[in-house]
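Now for a concrete sample entry.
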Amino acid sequence: MILTAVLLVLGVLLWPSRGGAGAPGLVGDGEGPGSTPSRGRGDTVHAAADALDLCVLAVRAGLGTTEALEEVGARLGGRAGADLLVVAAAQRWGQPPEQAWSQVGPAWRPAALAWQAAERSGAAPAELLRAAADRVRGAEDERIEAAVARAGTLLVLPLGACFLPGFVCTTVVPIVLHLARTVIAG
């Protein structure tokens, strides 16, 4: 328990502060407190996964689920922190978890499902949140790999359009002309 508390404190202290250059933005628009326009969707989804990891540490340190959301949200800053604070406030006002999590972006969907499963079963949400963070990272990595594969396929079309005429003009046409001369002369 003490080790978990120490890890939580270190995680909160070492995480980028509110409004700093390293504070991650979250979900979709690429704009918001702490985000820079150059950040892509992958950075934002990983920011959600990192926030979930911090929530896991907070819950393991003994905080309640709503308190963990508030603490991590307050310390995290940026769009990710604001989203966690929105969910925590909605839960404080008595909204069920599915309604509270519906107020934030789609990057939080695995977290919402984990939180709802923990709420319904009465189980501690720490392991469910850890698994949700892993699913978020895995899904984003798969999305990136698929995009890279698509890009490789799309690059073949322009290359073919550029090199095929050159290949035909330098290889096929001379052979056809030579064969035609041979057949006509012969």
About this structure: The two ends are 95 Å apart (CA to CA). Residues 16-40 have pLDDT under 50 and may be disordered. The longest helix spans residues 126-185.
